[in-house]
Design goal:
Blueprint (H helix, E strand, L loop, with lengths): L24 H25 L7 E5 L2 E7 L6 H16 L4 E7 H6 L13 E7 L3 E4 L14 E10 L2 E8 L1 H20 L8 H29 L1 H6 L2 E3 L2 E7 L6 H14 L3 E9 L2 E8 L1 H5 L4 H11 L3 E4 L3 E5 L6 H15 L2
Parallel strand pairs: 9-10
Antiparallel strand pairs: 1-2, 2-7, 3-4, 4-5, 6-7, 8-9, 10-11, 11-13, 12-13
Helix pairs in contact: 1-2, 9-10
Length: 350
């Protein structure tokens, strides 16, 4: 019995109605290409990795397929390239793909691959790609390997302990993917003037290293500027109940390391003092607090100050009594956070 499942788009269907069922030939052919490609990739991986690379699951869809197999480690890029090249070479060879029903013993004698966990009857169907790949299968396939057109491996990843997954494209989908990649490469060669396509990897690596160097230099300039501003912060120090206070928002993009250095440097230059500094790094607020031993004896602890401020900033933080740091997501609330910290300090100083 053959069952068709469909959706009524218009009208009404009732028992006894006669209908005409048609195969979506374009979709069927696309799935057939993916199915044959799966067999070929399976065989190529067994050649490259050994007989343990047995299919542990697969999915065939129009224009794409995936193939799972056991492996304790990631497959090297060189092996993936070799497998892809091997399969595409056999597409050019345009091998005949044929199916034959025979006994299990005959199938084993001809070296046909049976999938572990599958149940087979006395008579089995063997699908062969030339004399190269032979596998027990009941699915639809193309008649010649050349009909696949092109196979492109997209990714290799882990889907669980000891199981790897290959995802790939075949036919028109593979061609479209490579066409987009070609357009992208051409765009890059236009952006990076005077560079040939094959020189792009090295040139991009050089540019990345150059950018890292420039970012490092910029960071050094920012650090020097921030440290130089410490003198002005000292001049702006306020005295509250005998305690020296420096509570300020600094320029943006000062690293947490520099914020720490500035806070500790300022604290070392004032007696019985509290330093609370804030900045914005990558659009997110950062806040640090440094408290002298004398101020700690008054019940003021850096960790508590940071907890108060970072809560208002929509984040968290912590540290020791003499130094703590925190942050959040709401950089627009820095003024409010510093004001609340000042209020907490005022409440503890008599």
């Amino acid at each position: 019995m053959i069952v068709h499942r469909g959706t009524v788009v218009s009208g009404v269907v009732k028992d006894g109605d006669q209908v005409v069922a048609e195969i979506d030939l374009e979709r069927r052919l696309a799935i057939s290409r993916a199915h044959t490609a799966t067999h070929m990739v399976h065989k190529a991986f067994r050649e490259a990795l050994g007989e343990t690379a047995t299919q542990a699951g697969s999915e065939n869809a129009p224009g794409r397929f995936r193939f799972d197999f056991p492996s304790t480690a990631a497959v090297p890029t060189s092996v993936l390239n070799d497998v892809e090249s091997r399969v595409n070479e056999l597409l050019i060879a345009d091998l005949q793909v044929h199916a034959e029903v025979m006994s299990q013993d005959a199938a084993k004698a001809m070296g046909a691959m049976a999938l572990f966990g599958e149940k087979y009857g006395d008579q089995v169907r063997v699908v062969s790609v030339g004399d190269w790949a032979k596998e027990l299968c009941g699915g639809t396939h193309v008649s010649r390997s050349g009909q696949l057109g092109l196979v492109k491996l997209l990714s290799e990843s882990s889907i669980g302990a000891g199981v790897r997954r290959i995802e790939a494209l075949v036919g028109h989908d593979a061609y479209q993917y490579l066409a987009r990649e070609h357009v992208l490469l051409n765009s890059l060669t236009e952006i990076i003037k005077g560079v040939r396509t094959e020189e792009l990897p090295q040139r991009i690596s050089e540019l990345i290293e150059k950018m890292k160097g420039m970012e490092k230099e910029l960071s050094s300039v920012r650090s020097a500027k921030a440290l130089a501003s410490a003198a002005n912060l000292l001049k702006n120090a306020k005295v509250l109940g005998g305690v020296n206070l420096i509570i300020e928002q600094l320029a943006d993009e000062i690293s947490v390391e520099d914020m720490r250095s500035i806070a500790l440097d300022l604290r070392s230059k004032i007696q019985n003092g509290i330093v609370v500094l804030a900045t914005v790094v990558s659009a997110k607020p950062l806040i640090v607090a440094s408290v002298s031993p004398e101020a700690i004896k008054s019940g003021i602890k850096a960790g508590e100050l940071i907890k108060t401020g970072s809560t208002i900033l929509g984040g968290g933080g912590g540290g020791k009594d003499d130094f703590a740091q925190g942050g959040g997501t709401d950089s627009g609330s820095i003024t409010k956070a510093l004001a609340e910290i000042t209020k907490v300090i005022s409440g503890k100083i008599k």
